[in-house]
Predict the structure.
Amino acid sequence: MGVVQSVLWGGTRGGEADAVVGAKRARDGVTKLAIVAPREEGRVGKKARKEMNREAQMALQREREEQKRADRRALQQAPKDLRSPEELRAYVRVVNDNMIEIAQGLVPNMIAPARCFVNAPLYRTLMEELVGSTGEKGQTSAMLPSLKQVANVASLPGVVGSVAMPDIHCGYGFAIGNVAAVDMDAPGAVVSPGGVGFDINCGMRLIRTNLTKEDILQPGVQAKLADTLFKEVPTGVGCSSSFHCTKERLDDILTHGMAALQDTEYVWPEDAAHVEEGGCISGADARKVSDRAKKRGIPQIGTLGSGNHFSEVQVVEEIFNPEAAAAMGISQVGQVCIMIHSGSRGLGHQVCTDYLQQIDKFLSEHPLELNDRQLACVPIHSSIGQSYLSAMAAAANFAFCNRSMMTAQVRSAFSKVFGKPARDMDMHVVYDVCHNIAKIEEHLRPGSKTETFSALVHRKGATRAFGPGHPSLPDDYKACGQPVIVGGSMGTFSYVLTGTQVAMETTFGSTCHGAGRQLSRVQALRKLEGKDVLEAMKRKGIELRVRNAKLVAEEACEAYKDVSDVTDVCQDAGISLKCVKLRSLVVVKG
């Protein structure tokens, strides 16, 4: 059987869309990442900001053209897997109605189990992608099929399990939706930036209110709220914040997370209790973050960005678990909530790029046998490995504060529209979760009911889903399990799930994070018309505000899997349980 080799790629996918990333091939064949940073810093005037946004859009267009050229080069140079479709199918075993397992041999050097949670339609989609990459024609995408990526992760030094969620789709190195646990004490155990992604701590935050759908649907209110949110929350490529962030304040944010904002009006004292890790990932070190990354972060804290990031006003459509929902302050159908999806913006992207370059140099001097160069990694306990983890934690803390600043902007917008303080509207944080992160956690060793081990859990497009009673959960969620915020595609449903003990035993305490793409951005733009998407949103009664209407087709619901299918798989497999279903009334995007 043919040996599967790496396919080189540089680019952005999913939550990685905020940085403008181009691929430049070096003489040694290793992908070099060139990032075009926004040029603004601090406060800028409207005219200057408009010019910067125009330049950023032009840069984005240039880099997308370069990305297309990189696609073509990668496809031309990609080695062909000459195995027949039947041979490839033989490596994928159906375990039950909700799980498949990838056998050793699909890719070289697998040392751990590789599994994926699916239903029958999702299974067919993954298999079509896999078998479509074989034969003389070769693969039709510059990225490896998702199942090969999941299997490649199972070959990393020290890995004890590679698990994919039902919203899986191919990504940089790791598939989006891939979880991998690495034994911290295993010889040569590694950390891989590709297992976190460029948008470090891209995540979700849900805010509840005591308002109802009827309050929003009063004449003129829905449109006014959409306009006010669009004005209050900076969006789009190159957007900048009104928050004056000094270098000293930024270092405090990077090191201490939300605690650095406690002396400001941007957070409520009780907010952090309902944020993963209390809004601060330990081990962060601002000194490990480059000056360039900090320069990019200063004007961007408190900004939404672009791509698949959003701020939505939603209403409760259905409550599946009244007791768990009540613990979250959600008590009735029609109750209004706000969901925020964003990450660490240009700062996180620059951190990832900086360390990929350092790791590239390290690997040239200390080669590792990797199936895919996008899985570039270093030993966890090496100097570079420790520095990356410290810088990654700092970028994650930046993201927590970014979502906190936007929470303040959302509270301000609601106060302006409804004429009363945010506290009077009970605008409390339900929960805030990461879905691009690597964290040290204690887990059961696979196959054991009692033996635990210290794991570095990479979650790339996957959400932590700790079960009831876990010591890291706030007291009010210990009975129901951790809330899991799952964003749908634009104009469809979103969900709140709860973590389970099954997840602790089978997925290293993880579950899905969203709908998951089924069309690439290029495919979506080719297949869908932006004006048709806008009209469809209007017919659904959704007020949409978007910075660049030409790119709205990229985020159309047709470009994504059905999020209800994804959450159904998670529920049926027991790795998380449905609690609340939400429907959009207002969507704000970059």
Observations:
- The first helix runs from residue 46 to 77.
- Residues 42 and 299 are 5 Å apart (CA to CA).
- The longest strand covers residues 576-589.
- The two ends are 46 Å apart (CA to CA).
